[in-house]
Amino acid sequence: MKVGILTSGGDCPGLNAVIRGAVLVGDRSYDAHEFVGFRWGWKGLVENDWMHLDRHSVRGLARQGGTILGSSRTNPFEGEHGGPDNIRKVLESHGLDGIIAIGGEGTLTAALRLSDAGIPIVGVPKTIDNDLAATDYAFGFDTAVEIATEAIDRVRTTAESHRRCIVVEVMGRHVGWIALHAGMAGGAHAILIPEQPESIETICGWATSVVDRGRAPVIVVSEGFRLTGMEQPHSHKGLDAFHRPRLGGIGEILAPMIEERTGIESREVTLGHMQRGGVPSAYDRVLATRLGMHAMAAIERKDWGSMVALRGREIVTVPISDATSALNTVPSSRYEEAALLFG
Ligand code: F6P
User: Fold this and answer.
1) Strand spans (E) along 129-275
2) Per DSSP, what are the bridge partners of residue 297?
3) 162: CA distance to ligand 1 center in Å?
4) CATH of the domain at 176
């Protein structure tokens, strides 16, 4: 068999480990399959921009951040060469039997549409946000939580030195998993997530009670958080290629509001793309490697339109639509549990 691989959407630590897992197991266990890597996500597939992949090109990749294939937020249905007809021609020109598409919600939604149009695709879920239903965890999330936790630990010492409030903004799009986990791990005094709007008065109350007992408040806010009364999350950066608002900036709004209402000097730190950079954690390396290996098995079974997923400790195969039909949001019970420690 001959298999194409692409990494699409926002990058995250572990993409290279998936590529390595798929190529190595394809080489070892399935009659020395051949691999073609498409560069820059869907863009490489529609424009036929590719590189040869073999076991030598994936050597040592499990610990390497980013993606050797490059990525982009390209919509494969748009542009001069977009759409299934041209993609089919590209597959035929290489003699490819199937494609492994590694990506998040936008990538998998496009993969599902292409699969419905007859393109042979198997999906691999990746996202630091952990927002995909149908998989218990996506690789990249664990690493992002580690990075955010270290940042919160560091911010805390400078906050204490100056008796300041520091608001730490993390990524996560419309779900609060990174904020919840990093906030709990870092002992934040409040964690603000998209699933649970809060009023500025409640947030200021938490900050004030921390200062009243001689501490400096550290507040973790997810980029998709809305204050009570805000209909949409804050967004001032336009839309991405899938017409979704680019989020970020709520921390910059909250810090001066807290300072003005409480008199506590406040600062804001946005962690941004730092959360997606650098080497993957051991957990993410293992998960990504296993997902790559199982994606290859799904290709072998011609399980088109499916996605590999983590359920408990096992890797299973589910329809891609299971992952894209609903968001994996933070249940209110998890927020209420964390909120017992706020203030
Ligand atoms: O989905 C991953 C993510 O990092 C989100 O948390 C964030 O909102 C978005 O991607 C940022 O996208 P970009 O890299 O295009 O700025």
Assistant:
1) 165-170, 190-192, 218-222, 266-270
2) none
3) 32
4) 3.40.50.460
Distances from the Cα of 226 to the Cαs of 43, 223, 234, in angstroms?
34, 9, 7
- Residue 46 shares a structural domain with residue 96: yes
Q: Which helix (H) or strand (E) holds 323?
A: helix 320-324
Structural domain containing residue 202: 142-276
Q: Whose CA is nearest to atom 8 of ligand 1?
A: 173
CA 276 to ligand 1 center in whole angstroms: 9
Name the domain boundary from 216, 251, 276: 276
Token digits of residue 32: 């020395």
Pick the catalytic residue: 11, 27, 129, 284?
Answer: 129
Question: Which tokens in the block code for residue 95?
Answer: 């003699």
User: For 49-107, what is each residue's pLDDT tens digit?
Assistant: 999 999 999 999 999 999 999 999 999 999 988 999 999 999 999 999 999 999 999 99
**Can 153 be counted among the known catalytic residues?**
no
Asked if residue 246 and residue 134 are part of one domain, the reply reads no
For the chain, how many structural domains are there in total?
2
Distance 234 CA to ligand 1 centre (A): 14
